[in-house]
Write a structure and sequence with these properties.
With 428 residues, the chain is α+β, with helices and mostly antiparallel strands. It is built from 19 helices and 12 strands. It is found in: Cell membrane.
Length: 428
Amino acid sequence: MITALVRERLRFSSGGTPPFAPFEWVIAGRYLRTRRKEGFVSAIALFSFLGIMLGVATLIIVLSVMSGFRKELLSKIVGINGHVFVAPIDKPLTDYADLSERLSKVAGVSLALPMVEGQAFASSPYGGSGVLVRGVRAEDLKKIQAVSGNIRGGTLEGFDTAGGVAIGRRLAEALGLQAGDTITLATPKGATTPFGTAPRIKGYNVAAIFEVGMSEFDATFVYMPLSEAQGFFNRDGDVTVIEVFLDNADSVGELRSALELAAERPVVLTDWRQRNRTFFSALEVERNVMFIILTLIVLVAALNIVSSLIMLVKDKSSDIAILRTMGATRGTIMRVFLITGASIGFVGTFVGCLLGIVFAANITVIQRTLLPGVWDPTVRFLSEIPSEINPGEVVAVVLMSLVLSLLATLYPSWRAARLDPVQALRYG
């Protein structure tokens, strides 16, 4: 059949065959099929296909999980901590109400809330734990969706007047508390006496239990009415910091000057990037290293294509010689083997891309079904495996794999095209 196609093509093409003619695809397809005589070559081609498929799928899955981690951690950390922190320089923030109002009117600012923050020791009849107490106004706490939108017990209604506190779910579990129970908070910065500063110990009703979804926050944060926190930490009508939430977390640099002007007093501004620089830099480094390491899988699979094509060229030397004597050009021979090798890489790439996208999109369901209990949120911060498929990254992985697959075919194809038909027929 191949001989007939070759003769027909050569008979109707006085100037030679056009690039990638149908008969070139037919020959390449025949070389890709498994035959008993060429079983070892086909086995190598199969492993090359599987290597590229798994390499591309793994790259897409890992990059999606890393992107999901960054997005979730950013939303959790920034969602509950704010984007910009305004602290005083010359005098305490006793004018926090007016200052918060001015900051909230800056374009791009969604919320500016005054806060009293301090460390304390929380205890119950069942245990104790160090906590971070945050004093905020009830109307401000309701605007923090990471807290008010994830209430698991109790309510925030009447938060200012009821004298209760809101605690994280993991802290409640560690202390054996439920909504309505009493939690005891102790701080060394209590009342000042002639003998020094005495510790302050006070019991509070657990008004609400929230779950942010980040284990460290759920086990540490305690929200208290602002006026109560001022008294608990001996604040003389002032706050420690004003947290500013922006519409876009990445617009911090653009709004810094506007916030300084709106403050109308000397203040120092720190943003979420400065506070979490080491953490997010480590994530970025890990992401880049994982990309390089996993790219090696695709590279190794591409090298397998080289070895399989070289063996195929050696095995098909007689066929190449016959094609050359029938009028096939070196370009024709090169394109045949280029199609043969590239087909392995291209099909493996697209199958791996599909597999990676499907797996990454359903990784949470797969983890819960196949590996229940493996993901420990107390160790990994988040309550479940996050995943976000970035189309740009998927395209970059696919293009990288296609380029490597194509490059892997060049040398064996060139070697096949340079084969001397006389020598091949003599020793083939």
